[in-house]
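Suppose a colleague, Dr. K., hands you the sequence of a protein chain of 231 amino acids and asks what its three-dimensional shape might be. Before reaching for any lab equipment, you can write down a predicted structure in token form. Begin with the sequence itself:
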Amino acid sequence: MDAPKILVVDDEIKITRVLQAYLEREKYPVLTAHNGQEALRLAREEKPDLIILDLMLPIVSGEEVCRQLRQEGSRVPIIMLTAKTALEEKVKGLAIGADDYVVKPFSPQEIVARVKSHLRRSDPDHGPLTDVLVLSGGALEIDIPAHRVSWENRSIDLTPTEFNLLVHLARQPKRVFTRAQLADAIFDYDSIMEERTVDAHIKNLRQKMQRAGAPLLVKTIYGVGYKYEEN
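The predicted structure, expressed as tokens, is then:
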């Protein structure tokens, strides 16, 4: 089986070279781009398995690259890079479809750890081949090996992080998970996930499910966290 292909996008050539060296050391094939237009072309033509995407890019911004790929139906995991530290910027990046958010300066080892985590969780071979959850009287179907979700046969396009959140909650209906527990379950690396970061992913998940006609299945337990419940 071929190693997952990584696209690294940053207008700082030094950063792309460093990340390329560290990722290739782990045997990942690496593509690089230095502006958003080039990133879109490579993403569409080369179909990478994961994208590391700088927020501030020339020609087309990283935000717009992410937005366009998600609008086209791409489910590739996207890790955003940015020099901005404000929480609002992180939430904004997640709201347009990014799966993760890393603030510069960062260590290359941290990026490699995150890449491994996201690739592992987006791998269709991750988990039993017969692992399909059928819920809500058969209306909601979650095909875990295929990373596919549908409500009454209407497909729901989720990012890898949104998908993994839904699976984690749906496996244990009515159990309440704190935001910290959800972050620990979804991200394997040692990372402090702000509460609003988890909230942003949950918000996106709910909106997509409700657009497909599903009722509110992921419920908020105020002061605690979230749970999956059908009634």
